[in-house]
Design brief:
alpha+beta, 2 domains, 4 helices, about 25% strand, elongated
Length: about 160
């Protein structure tokens, strides 16, 4: 039984270390993307409600245009992680105020795929939090060593 618990802890911790490491590496790579000027073409707040018993949720939708190597593109992403939905409208209002229609902003363009551009870079926070799933791996290894180590018999 201890072996099963140890293996589960190691696998779950390792999975989250992998996912957080991948998020950090992607966010770090974005820092090398070239910055170009873009113009905000549309900026609106979208609403949704999953069912009559759930609260209304709000999201800031944006459309911007930018040029990359002589070609014109449009983008919709504020960040690479996608659209954030919130039941609190004030956060969405702040985001909308940051990107008013007609304003010139800085866009980060993926040089390998210029169709992908973002207004905000992803956070590097996964690297600062990777210690937590590491505790599961270390704990699982401790349990595993304890489970497979020969037991000392009393004389």
């Amino acid at each position: 039984m201890m072996l099963l618990v140890a293996v589960c802890l190691i696998l779950i911790g390792s999975l989250f270390i992998y996912l957080m490491g991948r998020s950090y590496l992607r966010a770090n790579a974005m820092r090398d993307w070239p910055v170009v000027e873009c113009i905000i073409l549309e900026s609106s707040i979208e609403q949704r409600q999953h069912d009559p018993y759930s609260p209304q949720e709000f999201s800031h939708q944006v459309l911007y245009g930018y040029d990359w190597e002589g070609h014109s593109y449009t983008g919709k992403r504020i960040s690479l992680r996608g659209v954030k939905w919130s039941s609190k409208g004030h956060g969405v209002d702040r985001s909308r105020a940051s990107y008013p229609v007609g304003s010139i902003q800085r866009c980060h363009v993926n040089p390998d795929d210029p169709l992908v551009a973002v207004l905000e870079l992803d956070s590097l926070a996964p690297l600062y939090s990777i210690w937590f799933p590491s505790l599961f791996v270390i704990g699982g290894l401790g349990i595993l060593i304890t489970a497979i180590r020969p037991r000392k018999t009393a004389r």
